[in-house]
Every structure is written in structure tokens, then in C-alpha cells.
Design brief:
Structural class of chain A: mainly alpha
Radius of gyration of chain A: 18 Å
Distance between the termini of chain A: 52 Å
Largest interface: A-B, 46 and 46 residues
Number of helices of chain A: 9
Number of domains of chain A: 1
Low-confidence stretches of chain A: none
Shape of chain A: elongated
Oligomer: homodimer
Number of strands of chain A: 0
Strand content of chain A: under 5%
CATH topology of chain A: Tetracycline Repressor, domain 2
DNA sequence: GACAGTGTAAAACGATCGTTTTACACTGTG
DNA sequence: CACAGTGTAAAACGATCGTTTTACACTGTC
């Protein structure tokens, strides 16, 4: 595998499992199987590596979220959580750990949240037909965000609860 | 004010604004206006201080959450966010930063989440009358958690969306 | 067969981390 | 006045942080 790709994947795993600050560069180089010199040649700095990790995750996530109905949104989330484990939104976690003070990271996070909201709006639109669905979109977004957060301690139950709630809200909006 | 109380309040502010790892003990002693020797005499270690901060927040939060209806839950959350700012759930953030690996902290976090869920169950019960409302409770919990998380980037809109969604789910469960 | 490029291994950089220690001032009590 | 208790100020602890440097091996190309 490409050095940089492998490095970013390893960093994503460690950041997600142990936290950003708690993951030292020594641990990272060791687990990625490369020297610190090579690491810095490829990514420049730890902050840049964090941004790269989030960027890669964003692309992977958006690929998966390309669905047609509100119901499927929560299917995708269930699969994601089963595959990758539910330790909370890595974007919000990076934002929290840095206090939102590092523009390089804050930008990626806020852009990702904008994109997620836009994608949900698009799905709601497709599901409900033409009309203003701003309120429903915000509700689905909150359910999605809540399912991610609550899954940390409630597991899959949180996700199926969100899914059922979303179905009720969609039905209600249709009538 | 009592030294320890003031220290914990200062630590809560700094941890919340800048993150746990990113907040050094020097910064803390400086802002709390005491020597590091006094700090360590009173709280023992940074980890213990984190647990104390979370414990204090838990008591303050549970006091506020002592309401009678589902609707009021989101009123409380709105006030909390207006008063203290919405930077995400400090419990989940502490859990994420430490990878859930520090028992002293993981315990406080999971206990808090259990208590929150129990409190919501109690409110739902009072609101809906006797019967099994496990499903609705999980849905309200997810909406609550989602409102907290989404408020980081959507502000109060996330909270009022959660409130409206909860009202619909409650009405649906009543019929 | 020199050479530029890219990699590793490992030591070292200064800075900062959480924590402890030393030295000293102030307080109330016997 | 002695004294134990509690506080501050500040230096120092060893450890670890992110990052850079030194020294060297391997690779493909002219």
C-alpha cells in the first residue's frame, strides 16, 4: 500500500481509539512501520496529519451516505458503527480537543457538517417530494447526530431508536 | 469562595473551552490563582481533578433536569446552552480524549449517562402515564444527545428542532 | 560507477508535560 | 514565644511531546 495512505489509515485508527492528543508521534511511526523522518516528509506536521485523516474520513463517509431514503441513512450508520465501532463523531471530537482554535482543523470539521446537512436535505427532498423541508431536515440531522453520540454507550439500540423516530417524523410530514 | 470549589470551577471552564489534554496545570494554577503545591494538596492529580469536574457538572446538570414534562427537558437544554455555551457533552468529550481507558473517568461518564437515561424515563413516565415507554425513552434520549452535539455547529436551531420532534413522538405515543 | 532520490534507525533538539521539592510568609492556638 | 497548619513563589524533577538532524543503506538512472 502507498506509504501516505497507510500512514493516514493508521493515524485514523489510533486517533479514534485513543484520542488525538493522547496519540504520540512515536507510537504512530511504530505502528505505521516507518521512520519519523519519512512521516514528516509526507505529511509535514501532526496538525496536518489530523486534517488529512479527517479529509479521508469525510470522503469515505460521504461515499457511504449516498442513499435515496431517510430510512437508509440509519442503515448506513448501523453498518458504519458495526464496521468501525462507535466512539463518537471523530470530527466533533477533534474540534473539542482543539477547542475549535486550529483553523486547519475547524474548517474541515465545519465543512463536513455542512456537507452532511446538505446531503440529508437532498435525501429528505427526494423522499418527500418538492416543498420546504427545512424543519424535517434539521430533525433528521439531530437524530443522526444523536444516534452517533448515544451509540457510544447504548450501542445499536440508539441507532434503531433514531431510525424509528425518523420514520414517524417522515410519515407525519407526509400527511 | 472555597479554594477547591473555585479550582474545580476554573478547571471546568478551561477543560470545556480548550480541551482536557490541551489544558496544562500551569495555566490552571495561574487562572485559579493558586500555587501548584496547593492544587495537588487539594485534588491529588490531574485525572482526579477531571473526575471532580465531571462530578460537579453531573450534580449541577441533574439539579436542572428535575422537570415534569418532555417539553421542559429541551427548555432546560436551551437555558443550559445559553448560559454555558454549547461545546458538546463534556462527559463524552472526556471519554473520547482518554479513549475510555481511565476507569476513574469512564465510571463517572457511564454513571452520568445511566442517570440521564433514568431521569428521562421517569419524565416520560410522568408525562405519558403508566405503561412501557422504553422505546420512546430511547428516542428522547437520542434527540437530547443529538441536540447537544448538533448545537456545537447549529446553535439553538438544533435544540428547537429536537424539541419539536420530541413533541411529535410524544403525541404519537399517546394516541 | 557516480549520483540523486527515498527510505530506515536512532540520537538529539528545545519545549512542555504532570508532579515534587525547597524555601519562606502568614495565621491562629497552646 | 513556640508551633503546627496552610498558603505562595519558584526552581527542579524525570518523562514525554512534536520535530529535526545525523549517518547510512538501497534503488533506479545517466
Amino acid at each position: 500500500m502507498d506509504i501516505k495512505t497507510n500512514l493516514i489509515a493508521t493515524a485514523e485508527r489510533l486517533f479514534d481509539r485513543n484520542g488525538f492528543s493522547a496519540t504520540g508521534m512515536d507510537r504512530l511511526t511504530q505502528e505505521a512501520g516507518l521512520s519519523s523522518r519519512t512521516l514528516y516528509k509526507h505529511v509535514g506536521s501532526k496538525t496536518a496529519l489530523m486534517a488529512l485523516v479527517l479529509g479521508a474520513r469525510e470522503r469515505r463517509f460521504m461515499e457511504r451516505l449516498d442513499v435515496q431514503s431517510v430510512d437508509e441513512i440509519f442503515d448506513v450508520l448501523g453498518q458504519w458503527t458495526r464496521d468501525e465501532g462507535g466512539r463518537g463523531c471523530l470530527f466533533l471530537r477533534s474540534y473539542g480537543e482543539t477547542g475549535g482554535d486550529i483553523p486547519e482543523i475547524a474548517n474541515v470539521v465545519l465543512t463536513h457538517k455542512d456537507a452532511t446537512r446538505a446531503k440529508i436535505a437532498e435525501i429528505v427532498q427526494r423522499d418527500l417530494g418538492a416543498g420546504d423541508h427545512g424543519e424535517l431536515t434539521e430533525q433528521i440531522l439531530v437524530l443522526f447526530e444523536g444516534a452517533v453520540a448515544a451509540a457510544v454507550y447504548r450501542g445499536m439500540d440508539a441507532i434503531s431508536a433514531a431510525r424509528k423516530a425518523a420514520a414517524i417524523l417522515v410519515a407525519q410530514a407526509r400527511s
